[in-house]
Amino acid sequence: MAFDASTLSYNADGLLPVVAQDAESGEVLMLAWMNAEAVARTLETGRVTYWSRSRQAFWVKGETSGHLQTLVEMRIDCDRDALLVLVDQVGPACHTNRRSCFYTGVRDGTEVVLSDPMV
Amino acid sequence: MAFDASTLSYNADGLLPVVAQDAESGEVLMLAWMNAEAVARTLETGRVTYWSRSRQAFWVKGETSGHLQTLVEMRIDCDRDALLVLVDQVGPACHTNRRSCFYTGVRDGTEVVLSDPMV
Predict the structure, then answer these.
(1) Which of A31, A79, A106 sits opposite B74 (nearest CB)?
(2) Of A63, A104, B20, B100, which residue has the fewest beta carbons closer than 10 angstroms?
């Protein structure tokens, strides 16, 4: 079946959550948001393109930082209201310069920082 | 720092997106939602507990199906508005009886089913 970004289920703001996973290592790098146009642009360009809720603008991941995300494969979940993108990530995915945004663990009721910024 | 579920950032409905990842294989299994109480219950019980938006009720994953998710570790992202739970998943995570909800890939503009229901 031909894929059409308009057939996905978006929230009231026209967005759906997107999980980015390192296609090689399997590490979950980040969670961000796309609207239908961002989904279409990501597939067209191969550069993962989110919608920035804070800036209310398209956000080509790494366009300013150089830490580009190249799409390896997009996957749709069973309810069609979330996406998984397998990516080739250059450098850190997180704005804190860490590889993954999920660098804080909860262990025995305490928050523990699990990784350092990349150098 | 002691973890307090109320310090996370929730949306207007009091929810945040949660990515469940197989702690062993690294496979991303599903994306669902928690409110602060579901986060606290998950940590207290070790059974991953979501908030069902369709049923507007707590949803102890696998409570009826037997396909329990046991928490291995909870991780918080840099913006504190998304969670990653590393889990031990019994059987399929998806209601279609597939291991992962993300079983549809987009390849060359076409939707392709990548995995079959578990038997």
Answers:
(1) A106
(2) A63
Average confidence (pLDDT) over A25-53: 98
pLDDT (mean) for A85-106: 98
Closest CA relative to residue B83, chosen from B31, B47, B27: B31
- For the residues B42-47, what does the mean pLDDT come to? 98
From chain A, pick out residues whose CB is under 8 angstroms from the CB of B103. 75, 78
Tell me whether residues B82 and A26 touch, CB distance under 8 A. Answer: no
Contact between residue A15 and residue A36 where contact means Cβ atoms under 8 Å apart: no
Averaged pLDDT, B49-75: 96
Closest to B95 measured CA to CA, from B52, B56, B58: B52
When CB atoms are compared, the residue of B84, B107, B114 closest to A28 is B84
Give phi and psi for B64, each to the nearest 5.
Answer: -95, -35
Query: Considering only CA atoms, which of A80, A81, A85, A86 is closest in space to residue A16?
Result: A81
The angle at the Cα of A33, spanning B50 to A30, to the nearest 5 degrees, equals 75
pTM confidence score: 0.97
Residue A61's nearest CA partner among A82, A84, A36, A31 is A31
Cα gap B98→A87, rounded to integer Å:
23
